[in-house]
Amino acid sequence: MTTALAPLHPKELASTRLPARTDAQALVHVEDLTMAYGENVLQHDLNFDIRSGEVFVIVGGSGCGKSTLLRHLVGLQAPTKGRVLYGQRDLYDSDDATLSALRREFGVSFQAGALWSSMTVGENVMLPLQMFTELDAQARESEARFKLALAGLPDSFDSEPSALSGGMKKRAAIARALALDPALLFLDEPSAGLDPISSAHLDELLAHLCHDLGTTVVMVSHELDSIFSVADRVLFLDAQSKTMTALGPPRELQRSGPKHVRDFLRHGGNNATGSGP
Amino acid sequence: MLALPEALASSPRATLSFDSRGLSQWDAGLASALWQRLSALDPGRVVIDSGGLPPGLAQILALSMPQSAATTADPEQAPRGLALWGLWATASSQRLTATLAFVGSVVLSMGRLARGRSDMRWSDLVWQVEQTGPRSLPIVALVSFLIGLIVAYMGAAQLERFGAQTYIADLVTVGVVREIAALLVGIVLAGRVGAAFAAQIGSMRANEEVDALQTMGVDPVDHLVLPRVLALLIVGPLLTVFAALVGLLVGWAVAVLLYDVTPLEYAYKSLSALTLPNLLIGLLKGTVYAVLVALAGCRQGLAAGRSAQAVGDATTAAVVQSIVWIVVAASALTVIFQRLDW
């Protein structure tokens, strides 16, 4: 019989926060990436690296292709042009076995959660453990309860996904994404729709994962407070020019980035830093 | 009527300004009319100076104009005539290729299962067998009863004209066991199970649940399609046997109760007609139809779009495709077995 673990308090997590890692090893290399739906080009000629152990945030106006870029990074949508390299391996030029093995290094949380509706929340988190680990049933349950508690849902193990609110579904999806302790965590607007306390808790969790456990986090977000709180670097996708127009630490971009990026980051900067750009 | 100066159309470079001093009041209708005309202008050729407009109106236009620039591209010409046929042929070819690729992926998935390297969960297979088998019995029994009744009754009525009503047993046994039971099971499964498969998987796709599986390294074909195909592979022949038994019993009842055929005579004739080829062909057809239903349902589900409407369309397409595939398979198998004299 296992018991639910209490979620870590933000202050407890904050105390474990370490300085950003100094190694700048590129974990993901994106090269000349062009994304399009048919004739409609969303973004073109994207070139950037995602470094090991950083929180990398993709921002930009609505419809600029942030979520689509995330789908390209996790192998769900092949680029019209260009490559996504994990180490030396091209994500879209790998055989099924390699691709499958690579994906098992990922944890992905989708915008609306995408919990498997035919299973309980606990079963959702346990499925990857059942499929890819040798853990027995009791250990799987214990691990799943821990991950749910970490995501702030200690009492939802037996709940049906349909019984959860939108924010709870997101947190359950994050717990599922964390199930296998992935090296790379992809999150699509994880804090959208969360209350401020849950959002702050999530930020602390991400910081803890990244700086303490070395997890690399790639996140799409509109939440500027969250960006300034956790992001090591921000990639700005511009809907007008249809390409990336800025890449760097958020405060640096807020100070000396292009005007439209400074405008984008202005309100969040005021909230996060207490001073204007 | 709001009209722009004609000079704007011919001038290579122009500035459009406004004088609204005579305008005492305005409403959203003016903003809409102005937007419609101004957004059609080429911003590279005509500079719009909105300084002369009332401040509120100028602000509304300023908000709307940048968006209009992105949407003023020339509308594409709708394809007509031969181009339509070309598009249809291209789309059909792509659908056929995708369907063949899907069938190939299911075969590969079966290979992985045989080698013990599949992502399929056996509990899912058991659950699918329960959902598709026992729960289909009532509707299969009802349809088999009614169709068996029609076959026996109509057949006997014709045979009676020649005094040959004792051949009802042959007619019913060969017809039901070899052809009708399998066809009924296929059609019932198409409506009840194929549609459900398409709706389940289509909903999962719309909710990104299929993407969640893929990003975890789980093959959706192994996890979602294989249990369903295997379930119908198991359930198909069993339901065919059940449907045939119901049909034979109805035939027996009609012959004995209405046409004065003795029970023993019917049983003897029926057993004589129940040859091994008839039995095996019936079972084979039932299995083939059931697998076709599973493939059509899963294929349409996985190919569904990401909206409620798309899931509905996928469900409809699954039923239609299942029935078309069943009819085509029935025709082909009948011709093949007749040619082989089986």
Task: Describe the SSE topology.
The complex is a heterodimer of chains A (277) and B (342).
Chain A: H1 10-15, E1 26-37, E2 40-51, E3 55-60, H2 66-73, E4 81-86, E5 89-90, H3 96-103, E6 106-109, H4 121-132, H5 137-150, H6 166-177, E7 184-188, H7 196-213, E8 216-220, H8 224-230, E9 233-238, E10 243-248, H9 250-256, H10 259-273
Parallel strand pairs in A: 3-8, 3-9, 6-7, 7-8
Antiparallel strand pairs in A: 1-2, 1-4, 4-5, 9-10
Helix pairs in contact in A: 4-5, 4-6, 5-6, 8-10, 9-10
Chain B: H1 7-10, E1 14-17, H2 28-38, E2 46-49, H3 55-70, H4 82-114, H5 122-132, H6 137-160, H7 168-206, H8 209-215, H9 220-258, H10 263-273, H11 276-302, H12 308-339
Parallel strand pairs in B: 1-2
Helix pairs in contact in B: 2-3, 4-9, 5-9, 6-7, 6-9, 7-9, 7-10, 7-11, 7-12, 9-10, 9-11, 11-12
